[in-house]
Amino acid sequence: MKSVIATQQVVTGHRNCDFDALAAMIAATLLYPGTTPIIPRSVNPNVRRFLSMHKDILHVAAPDEIDWPRVEHLLVVDTNRWNRIDREIVDRLPAGVAVSLWDHHPDSGDITSDVGIQETAGATITLLLREIQQQRKILTPIQATLFLAGLYEDCLLYT
Question: Which residues contact 50 (CB under 8 A, 6 or more apart)?
Answer without folding.
Answer: 19, 22, 146, 149
